[in-house]
Specification:
about 260 residues; alpha/beta; six-stranded mixed sheet; two-stranded antiparallel sheet; elongated
Amino acid sequence: TTGAMLFDCGKVDFRMELAPDYKANRAEMPDELRQQIPIIREMAAAFGWPLLQEPNYEADDLIAAFARNVPAGRRVRIVSSDKDLTQLITPEITMLSPAPKGGFEERGEAQVRDKYFVNPERMVDYLALIGDSSDNIPGVPGVGPKTAAQLLNTYGAFTEWENDLARIENPKLREKLETNLDVIRRNRKLVALLDKLPERMAPVEDQLKRNTPDWVEIRRICEQMELRSILKELPAPPESEEPDLFSQVEEKSDSAEMVQGELF
């Protein structure tokens, strides 16, 4: 299995120009967590994962760029709970999200429809309509998840009715949309993920090569940080077979995996 852990480089310029208040509601990262970030990076690198980030790309954007540019026929699994990434889901691209009771659960096209009542290709329009409080993106007043899903399933994508609002039969909804067309257009640009791969990161295969885990370094980090649950799973020194520590997020197949990391 190939893959990488992808990190933010902060807020990107074009989104800040569109909405100066973008993510302004987020609290600073607690010092206790900030101090753990270098250890997390060390541990991920010791397990062999490339650590990637790019100026003016959020982690989500970089994931989109890799996911949409892998060679044809390759499966991609994204390890994240971020609903913005559901816009990327296709038969070849799925997500592994933390499950409420522990472990991970698969999120594909069917799971997106079950949760949001729209197909993944409508998620940008859906989020543009309802907004995203976690990113400080206000939606159309009076349009919630149920109304947004019904609108998109009845009349199609935003581009199919933005210039023909007479199609919208409900007069109250039509008025809300008419007075907020600019809001929807702006939100779509904020929510849609970049998918152009940075030039220095091409070809994709070279960036997603996983190295052999350094079990000595992993053990050192675990002992230093008193990560006893992981220590129990490590191969006994000096040598042993590698345990399948990522059994829930890896499989021995022709696939690429991307793990999201966010830094603010």
